[in-house]
Design brief:
325 residues, alpha/beta, 46% helix
Length: 325
């Protein structure tokens, strides 16, 4: 019996290996957490080797997200979120809004990002008022808005989603969260989101498909983000894929190049995307009208822009200038 159990455990480990190999971001420290509690106000760190440290900022965010989600769940459980959904207005058509705005303007549909800070730049907008910024974006011609909800690294919150929706902003809202489990999707919908972000570098296809189904059941669209050709090829195997975001930031070097979008869309994968009518969202490195034209020519039907807009004193005019409206 012990031998059978051991063989079963080994088989489960082998079955998990392909999913782990799909992603470049490890979901948690391979040798456990480094900080341990020793009473109410005392913690101590256990010396670890380099392999137990985050390889990049995205991995660091994901590792901390496990702690953050557990904290959120302990304060508001899933049953409470489900009850809140019963009185939450229906989600708005995120994909439809992008298509409509692109048809009206002849430009990629703009997803304008409400963001106070980032790990690399620190505070981007010191005078941060999420509602004021969201309203300016809408007045400027944004198709949709992206709202950062990560607290530790981006100084965002789920409350910002609720505030923006409650203020009467009509643009559909993307919850820009580093999602690792379904609880966050329920929290996003209960906070007023109309779409969620899923990152292929973090989530294998089995997780992506499951979370996409969870989102669809709640009426949410999903933007699946890729960084590499291998990730793009993988996510094109997912059922129900409508939005693919190409992030022009290299996760290893952190360099940004719009050529990543052009390269990923220039071959057979780009042909398949066009044939299936999937909207490609260009992300990172878009600052000027020439940048917009470049990614549009490469095949993007939408763009997600944050830093270059949110830091402006007049985001409404900034959008019109960016899109040459």
């Amino acid at each position: 019996a012990r031998g059978g159990a051991a063989r079963g455990a080994a088989a489960r480990c082998r079955a998990a290996e392909p999913a782990e190999a799909e992603t470049s971001i490890r979901r948690r420290p391979p040798r456990g957490i480094d900080v341990h509690s020793c009473g109410k106000d005392v913690t101590f760190e256990v010396p670890v080797d380099e392999d137990n440290k985050p390889r990049n900022i995205l991995e660091e965010i994901v590792w901390y997200k496990n702690v953050e989600v557990e904290y959120m769940r302990n304060h508001v459980d899933l049953a409470t979120l489900k009850r809140k959904l019963q009185v939450t207005p229906p989600a708005r058509d995120f994909v439809g809004a992008i298509r409509q705005k692109a048809a009206e303007t002849g430009k990629p549909g703009l997803i304008a990002e409400v963001k106070k800070a980032s790990p690399s730049k620190g505070v981007i907008q010191p005078d941060f008022d999420p509602v004021r910024i969201a309203m300016a974006y809408e007045d400027g011609g944004a198709a949709c808005l992206s709202v950062l909800t990560d607290e530790k690294y981006f100084q965002g919150s789920f409350e910002n989603l609720t505030l923006i929706r409650g203020a009467g902003v009509n643009c559909p809202l993307l919850c820009k969260e580093f999602i690792i489990e379904a609880y966050q999707i329920y929290k996003a919908r209960a906070s007023g989101a109309d779409a969620v972000l899923l990152i292929a570098a973090v989530l294998p296809n089995t997780d992506l498909q499951y979370l996409m189904k969870c989102a669809k059941a709640l009426g949410l669209a999903t933007l699946v983000e890729v960084h590499t050709e291998a990730e793009l090829e993988r996510v094109l195997k997912l059922d129900g894929l409508e939005l693919v975001g190409i992030n022009n930031r290299d996760l290893q070097t952190f360099e940004v190049s719009l050529d990543i979008t052009r390269q990923l869309l220039s071959g057979k994968l780009g042909e398949e995307i066009r044939e299936r009518g999937i909207i490609v969202v260009g992300e990172s490195g878009i600052f000027t009208p020439d940048d917009v034209a470049f990614v549009q020519d490469a095949g993007c039907g939408a763009i997600l822009v944050g830093e270059s807009l949110v830091k402006q004193t007049d985001p409404e005019t900034g959008i019109r200038n960016l899109l040459s409206l």
